[in-house]
Amino acid sequence: MASILTSLGRTVFAGFVLLLLILLALGANFSAPELPFVFRWLHVMCSIMWIGLLWYFNFVQIPSMPKIPDEQKPAIGKVIAPAALFWFRWAALFTVLTGIILAALNGYIHQAFTLQPPFRAIGLGMWIALLMAFNVWFIIWPNQKRALGIVAVEADVKAKSARVAMLTSRINTLLSIPMLFLMVAQSWSRVWLVVIS
Fold it and tell me: What total of structural domains would you count in the chain?
């Protein structure tokens, strides 16, 4: 077991094997699964990584940085933060892509993006998620590259970039709360329609 758990790749593979065993134990029918279900599952997995890392940055890393001695900060800035930002930005992209594919497969993409009545909750959630993903790729990441020294800049630009990245990350944290509610509220559509009408 230790040989599985010491490798992230083997751990993830073992998670899929465990899922397969659980499905077999539950007597799952292994005919081809419906694509919307597969994309919903992928969408949820990607979004957990994206929002989990967003909240890690805002609830753990950013508040902890002032408490870390200067000689230890390079470990965060040169190793941990770049790795976390890699998974963060790709999880954001794949969350958006799987969400759009899911909406298309379920036949409500146009209704959601145009905020038509039965799809306002999911549509608004999708627009917020798109804004958040834009922030990740086009504001947070370019500024973090400067702040972390991945791209060489003057000290004042580095400091300003760190602040812009942090504030944009806080905006995304703020937006994540209504976005997550709106995504879940869509499946609660009858009650939700009463609330918004």
Answer: 2
